[in-house]
Amino acid sequence: MHALIVIGHHDPDSLTHAIAAQIATGLQASGHTSELADLAREGFDPRFGLADHAVHRRLAAPPADVRAEQARIERADTLVLVYPIYWWSLPALLKGWVERVFSNGWAFDYAADGSTTKRLQGMTAHLVGVAGADVGTFQRHGYDEAMRVQIEHGIFDYCGARVLSSILLDDSEGRDPARHLATAHALGAGLFSNTRRHEPATAG
């Protein structure tokens, strides 16, 4: 089976990149394949502009870069987002990728009467957040629940996709961050355990 691993960090020498690489290595060790979508290196433009607005209003087809990302998702059996947590949320690079790629007409259909059809019902996802703070800080202030509502429910459930796992790799700037690499490898190795190949994420 095949996973698309999307990296939301600008520095190729970052812990985020190392974690993504370990997930890919774990997948390979289990007989699966993966593709790394290094958004910064590939030069993906996260800015939602006039062309994207036209897509949202169903006045134009998605730009070529957006369609290429959608095609990568469609080729995958699951989606893995690996990202640093900035201001208790996704970094702008990855948030912009979601805003542009998960477009009206592809990820969902928004009708004139206000109803919404979820178009990614066959899609699954795994979230891997890399945090500077520790778990206690997230829980004490309610950031963990806020992020769950914002990302798992607000993005993926809105489009019909299922988040199969959400991992917080905490205190990345405190204790030895290398301990997270073993966790990432194990995640990759077991990513497709007890799962079946899903249908294509979208019909068109």
Could you characterize the architecture of this molecule?
The chain has 204 residues and is α/β, with parallel strands linked by helices. The protein has a single domain (2-189), classed as Rossmann fold. The protein has eight helices and seven strands. The protein has helices at residues 15-29, 39-42, 50-56, 64-75, 92-101, 135-141, 143-159, 179-189, and strands at 2-7, 33-38, 78-84, 108-110, 116-118, 124-130, 162-169. A hairpin with a 5-residue loop joins strand 4 and strand 5 (116-118). The longest helix is centred in the last third of the chain and has 17 residues, at 143-159. The model is unreliable at 196-204 (pLDDT under 50).
How many strands, which pairing sense, and closed or not: the largest β-sheet?
Answer: 5 strands, parallel
Low-confidence stretches: 196-204
Please, how many domains?
Answer: 1
Content of β-strand? 15-25%
Distance between the termini: 21 Å
Count helical runs.
8
- The CATH architecture can be named as 3-Layer(aba) Sandwich
Output the helix-strand order.
EHEHHHEHEEEHHEH
Instruction: Write down the CATH class.
Output: Alpha Beta
Radius of gyration: 17 Å
Question: How much helicity do the residues have?
Answer: 40-55%
Overall 3D form: globular
The strands making up the biggest β-sheet line up spatially as 2-1-3-6-7
SSE class: alpha/beta
pLDDT averaged over residues:
91
CATH overall fold name? Rossmann fold
> How would you name the CATH homologous superfamily?
Flavodoxin domain
Q: How many strands appear in the DSSP assignment? A: 7
